[in-house]
Every structure is written in C-alpha cells, then in structure tokens.
Amino acid sequence: MTDRPGGAEEFGAGATDADTFDVVVIGGGPPGENLAERTQAAGLRTVLVERELVGGECSYWACMPSKALLRPPAALAAARAVPGARAAVRGGLAAEEVLASRDAFASGWRDDSQVEWLRSVRVELVRGQGRLAGPRTVVVTTSEGGERRLVARHAVALCTGSRATLPDLPGMAEARPWSSREATSAARVPDRLAVVGGGVVGVEMAAAWQALGASVTLLARGSGLLPHWEPFVGELVADGLARAGVEVRTEASVSELRRPDDSGPVVLEVSGGNAVIADEVLFATGRRAGTENLGLETVGLTPGDWLATDDTLRVRDVPGDWLYGAGDVTHRAMLTHQGKYQARVAAEAIVARARGEAVDDRTWGRHVATADQRAVPQVVFTDPEAASVGLTLDAARAAGLRVREVDYDLGSVAGAALYAEGYRGRARAVVDLDREVLVGATFVGSGAGELLHAATIAVAAEVPISRLWHAVPAYPTMSEIWLRLLETYRG
Predict the structure, then answer these.
(1) Residue 453 annotated as binding?
(2) Is the peptide bond before 384 cis (omega within 30 degrees of 0)?
(3) With contact defined as beta carbons under 8 Å apart, do 282 and 192 qualify?
(4) Is 340 marked as binding a ligand?
(5) At the fourth CATH level, which superfamily is domain 19-55+111-163+288-371?
(6) What positions does the domain FAD/NAD(P)-binding occupy (predicted)?
(7) 16-64 pLDDT, tens per residue?
(8) In terms of CB atoms within 10 Å, which of 60, 118, 187, 275 comes out highest?
(9) Is 411 labelled a binding residue?
C-alpha cells in the first residue's frame, strides 16, 4: 500500500506568479471537500490544496475501510442470533474476501473518483504541501517540486485533520508499531495482535481483527474501556469483546517494547502484569493536530497547535476575518460527520461575509456550529454497538445542569427480542429537569446505531418531553425504547 496520490493530474488554472482565488482550502478530506464545494457553488472561485489523497483519512484509513472490516462480522453475528437463520450459517468469515472488499471501499488507495468529483463541482485542485505565507496567502510546494503562490480574496480554510501519535517508549522504533492507518489497511491477518488503547479505534480494531482470525490482546491504561462514554458502555463493550475471544486487560500500561529480530514477534512489557507477545502491535493512544508545516507562525500562531476557532469557525487571534478551520484540526468534535457539519457552517459564514451580509451567530443560528457543544452523535461499531448524542450524565452535571438519568433494559423491548435471541443492551436518557428536554441519550446493543438519529433530532431540536410523548413508536421495533424511557421518566 502507498500513501502517494493516485496519479490524477493537477487541473485548473495554470501556475502564475500569484494565482488569485476567492477561497483557498488546504486539506482535501471530507471537511475540505465540503467547504470547497459549498463556497464554489455560491459563486466564490475556490481552489483545494491536497498533499496526499483527495478524500482524506476517512476515505482511505478510517471510516470507510474500518467499517468495511467491521460489517461482515456484525452481519454474521446477527444471522447467528436469529433462530432458523443460524442453521444456514456454515463456517466463519472469509478473511481474504473481507480484505478485498475493504480494498474496494478504499478505492485501492487511489483518488481518481474523488478528483473527478471535484471536477464535476468545478473546484480546482493543486497537488502539494500548502503553507501560509502571511495574510490570505498560501504557498504550495507542488508534487512536481515546484512552487505555486495562491492569494485568497476572502478566506483561507485549514482542513488538515489530525495525525496518530505514538508514546515515547523504549523500543518503539524497532517494534515498528501500527497506527490507525496500518490497522485499517494491513494486507494480511496477523496471528497475534496487541492493541494498546481502550478508546474507539482500539475497541473497533480489536473487534475487527479478532473476527478475521487474529488472537487479540487489548491493553487499556484506565480502569475500563471508552472512558468518555457512560460507564455502562465500556462494561458492555468489554464483555462483548471478551465473548468474541479478545483478551481485555485494564489498568495495563506498556513500559517497553522489544523486537530483537526484524521478522520476529514484538514483546510488550506491561506494568502490573505478564508481558504480551504479538506479531504486530497497534497503538491507538491519541491524535495530534495536523498543523505542522502549515506556516502558522507567519500569522502569529504556534505550529503544531490545534486551531482555536469561534463558533463561525474563524480562527481566533488572527485579525481580519479571513482564516477559518474545520474538522479535526479544530479539536472541537473529532468525527467525520462533525467535520463536514463544521465545513457547511464555515462555508455559509464565508459566503455571508464575502457578500457583506449579516452573520447569524445566535445559538443554533445558520452560521454557528452549536451542535459541537450540544448534540454530537457518535457510534462505536463493535458488537454490541454503542451510540450516543449530547451530554453524558456526568458531563451534564459538570455543566451545572439539574438533570435526571432514565435507564431501561433495551433487551426487554419487543423489537430487540425479535432482532436477536438473547439480546443484551441498555439505554439511557439524560433529562434537563428545569427545561424538561433531553440533553443526552446513549444506547448499547446490536443495531443501536440506527436508534441514534431520532435521539439527535430530539436533543438538537430541544423537543419538550411533553411533545415527545406524542411521537408514537411503531410496534414491534426497537424504537419502542423511546416509549419505555418516557414511561419510566413520567412514573
């Protein structure tokens, strides 16, 4: 596999001493693509600068390939959980087919189709490393080794994402660990895989590679998995991983790695426990801002820092209303769908300011990313799935809200019992008692992700509990959980 672009040529205006555009976007992942499309569609001539593959991390090393790895075992488990259907299941996963399907979803790590899409929406593309060179100016070191100077009349948007970080441990270099990129693009299934980190990437990749035939050990430094979720989420996901065969070890910190033979196994020394021997090791222990080599110092910012933005996505501490950020690089809500949301908001704000129109910066206004604080939806695609939106109970209390949690056994809902024999799951709603609206919801169980958007609408729209009572769920579906939560709340 290669990180190099897929061969599509640069297109658009020919290089000049200084090409002038209305908007210059650096970073061609989903946020950059969305922002560029919307400003171009509004009549602002837009150019996108990308140093790797158009489509970014999500398309090639994150969302799409990871879910292509996770969907087959989920489908197999669903069939085995239904009486009558399980008799038709013979054997296990065909790992080679799963990896081939993953490759197809990642477009063979070529971006020709994404480049063609850019053409179709009339966004120009420049291949290379873009960096700021003062206000409204971007210099690109092109993939051919030349240099191109781009000037923005209205806005420069930085959409350069984040990068995996590796801890500074003895033996790290010789161990040649996987990051999330290798974990989603590896060409073969290792016999033994150690996964370090109990967050979303760690648990999803542990689930995927165990299902594909690896013997997986998951090492989490904390007392449980998924520490930023409701506590019961980590407990149920850990139980699901253990039932699938993953060895889950909590309060396990790696202190040293050794791979004495280049082609041999890696040894992980683990505090408070036995050493782990694995053929490959994945470190899923954090991300850093993708702001290195961006020329931030030329506009008074610190290279390597996350971009601090206001809710219209303007970068703070840069005068002139011209510099914006969207996606992971802002550290607001590091999820692809939130990055695309931020891109839509930023594009609308850029267009409004370019036209001299008023900016609607009220809470939930057209030009503000209010959902980043109030209604962020996210799904963990393990078995069981976990899905949440808004605030956890602890986060709501820390925010000073007077709240009450409402819990219910998701497996006791008729639709869940039909979905899978022995269905295990849980649901929680967090209610603001002063306003009587939902401020958070969490679901754990097979297929729980499909319950999430209803909760997202309820949280984002601040639908009163009294009105939700009249939103009647169809029987017998898992959505009946809404009725049970409301009945429990009302007593």
Answers:
(1) no
(2) yes
(3) no
(4) no
(5) FAD/NAD(P)-binding domain (3.50.50.60)
(6) 21-342
(7) 446 999 999 999 999 999 999 999 999 999 999 999 999 999 999 999 9
(8) 60
(9) no
